[in-house]
Fold this sequence. Notes:
- The chain is α/β, with parallel strands linked by helices.
- It has one domain (2-282).
- Helix content is 49%, strand content 17%.
- The chain has 12 helices and 9 strands.
- Strand 3, helix 8 and strand 4 form a beta-alpha-beta unit.
Amino acid sequence: MSRIAFYVFVMPLSYLPLAVLYLFSNFLSFIFIYIFPYRKKVIEQNIRNSFPQYVDNEVNTLIKKFYRHFTDTLVEGIKNLSISEKQLRKRLIVKNPELMEQLYSQKRNVILVSGHYNNWEWLISAQNFLFKHQAFGIGMPLSNKFWNDKVTQRRERFGMKVVSSSNYKVKFQTFKKKPYAVLTLGDQSPAHSTKSYWMNFLNQQTAVLFGTEFMANEFDFAVVFFIVRKIRRGYYELELKLLTEEPKSLKWGEITEIHTTLLEHEIIQNPAYWLWSHKRWKREIPQDLTELKIHQKKRFESKFRT
């Protein structure tokens, strides 16, 4: 069934012009708003917790805006399976590429970090030709092997190398051809509450993945925050911000606090473009949070600061 769906339905759809796919997006957003609201309870609860000052009308307006953007993201994700390099270069512009160019000239490996904001899928495909660095992406495998293999193949067709948490160390340590840049999305819900970094994010205590900060210290990566902003429908601008070239000069938690706060700022400015349907706050706050943080800090400093 997965094979039939991919070759008979999804791939043929991806070859349609975006103008046609956006008509489908319009129809789908209407369905989500008025007939079968996709994950509405999750979306509404996330929004109310994040923006307690919003009255009902503001919440409902944001939900509608989110659905319209979300369905655009879905069809753009389908288009991503076949979109050409020429189209990607036209539709995803880097505002300040000189930052990555300078790091490349210094032969610095980089970790690029952000979240599920606007169109992250197009960046995954385009990263290897937008920057001189060899592109790596930390991927979470899909449960369906066929879909995982096909999506990975399409993401890698312009040179991106998708790696997992189980093999990234070997891949990074053995890659010596040229400087590389690792793409991470730091706003996913962590698997373990006790292995997460806890901080205030969108008005609530939140478990944040610590992988970006850990890898930056482990491999001495320069850390660059990126944000994808929508210019108009189907067109995006990527802006980069250097967080540090010396991760080991920063305190425990500082990198995580900075990149998460920068993402939070963007979400507050334009909240409709974040992935509100994600069950972001499903981890319970540990009862011994203060003790946990003390233990995490000691373990981090014993590994990277001695």
